[in-house]
């Protein structure tokens, strides 16, 4: 699980301004952290199918936000992809 300190760090890294917790970049970065955490969980719990469905929902949500950001501001999208190390 992503801790509060990790969330604060992610928000401060990707926020556009003070108090920005809802921009697409912040949301994508938080979802990415949750997805990475769940991937670590699955290395030890291979048959946890209930969490697997939650993982697929998180991935779908992140993909939709990425498509939105790509459609609205391509430069911000490219910077975010590079910062998170995601595939295009």
Question: Any overview of this molecule?
Answer:
One of its GO terms (cellular component) is cytosolic small ribosomal subunit. InterPro entries: Ribosomal_uS15, Ribosomal_uS15_bac-type, uS15_NS1_RNA-bd_sf. Keywords: Ribonucleoprotein, Ribosomal protein, RNA-binding, rRNA-binding. By secondary structure, the chain is mostly helical. The chain has one domain (4-84): S15/NS1, RNA-binding (Helix Hairpins, Orthogonal Bundle), CATH 1.10.287. Helices cover 76% and strands 0% of the residues. The chain is built from four helices and no strands. It has helices at residues 4-14, 24-44, 49-72, 74-84.
Give a quick summary of the entry.
This protein is mostly helical.
Secondary structure blueprint with pairings:
Blueprint: H1 4-14, H2 24-44, H3 49-72, H4 74-84
Q: Percent of residues in beta strands?
A: under 5%
User: How far do the termini sit from each other?
Assistant: 26 Å
Mean pLDDT: 95
Largest sheet: none
Spans where pLDDT lies below 50 across 5 or more residues:
none
Choose one word for the global shape: globular
Amount of helix: over 70%
Per DSSP E runs of 2 or more residues, the count of β-strands stands at: 0
**CATH superfamily assignment?**
S15/NS1, RNA-binding
Radius of gyration: 14 Å
Function: Forms an intersubunit bridge (bridge B4) with the 23S rRNA of the 50S subunit in the ribosome.
Keywords: Ribonucleoprotein, Ribosomal protein, RNA-binding, rRNA-binding
Family: Belongs to the universal ribosomal protein uS15 family.
GO molecular function: rRNA binding; structural constituent of ribosome
């Amino acid at each position: 699980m992503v801790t509060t300190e990790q969330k604060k760090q992610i928000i401060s890294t990707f926020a556009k301004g003070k108090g920005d917790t809802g921009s697409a970049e912040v949301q994508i970065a938080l979802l990415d952290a949750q997805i990475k955490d769940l991937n670590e969980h699955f290395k030890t719990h291979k048959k946890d199918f209930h969490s697997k469905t939650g993982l697929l929902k998180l991935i779908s949500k992140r993909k939709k936000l990425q498509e939105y950001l790509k459609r609205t501001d391509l430069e911000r999208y490219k910077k975010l992809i590079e910062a998170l190390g995601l595939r295009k």
